[in-house]
Design brief:
It is a single chain. The protein is of the alpha+beta class. The protein has a 5-stranded antiparallel sheet, with helices on one face. The structure holds guanosine-5'-monophosphate. The site of guanosine-5'-monophosphate has 12 residues, from strand 2.
């Protein structure tokens, strides 16, 4: 069954899309945890980092560069990029995604 993010990629569910290319999509998180909170996803349905394979190496790098692109588009110089890998650390949508968070200060380490 298609995940929520596959449905957003397929335009079956609306989202505020801020960037798209042939391999990735970026859209605003519906429950923003910061003034800027964008999700960057590969269009290829990979569950998470654990499920990625060696053939995904370029796609994973591409996702990180798209994180930089959307941060720049939002006027951010300082920002956090996070991926939750597994339900035990908070992954709720099992389609790989990178949270790009900015516009406020953050604690380290995260709680
Ligand atoms: P995770 O918990 O898997 O790391 O992150 C999933 C993210 O997806 C959460 O931050 C959550 O707010 C966001 N989210 C859940 N449902 C929707 C939705 O329908 N649209 C959008 N744009 N974001 C969603």
């Amino acid at each position: 069954m298609a995940t929520l993010f596959e449905k957003i990629i397929a335009r079956q569910i609306p989202a505020t899309i801020v960037y798209e290319d042939d391999e990735t999509l970026a859209f605003r998180d519906i429950h923003p945890a910061a003034p800027v909170h964008i999700l960057v996803v590969p269009k290829k349905p990979i569950e998470n980092i654990t499920a990625a394979s060696a053939e995904d190496i370029n796609l994973l790098g591409k996702c990180l560069l798209v994180c930089r692109t959307v941060a720049e588009m939002e006027g951010l110089t300082d920002y956090r990029v996070v991926t939750n890998n597994g339900a035990g650390v908070g992954q709720s949508v099992f389609h790989l995604h990178f949270h790009v968070l900015g516009g406020r200060s953050f604690m380290w380490p995260p709680g």
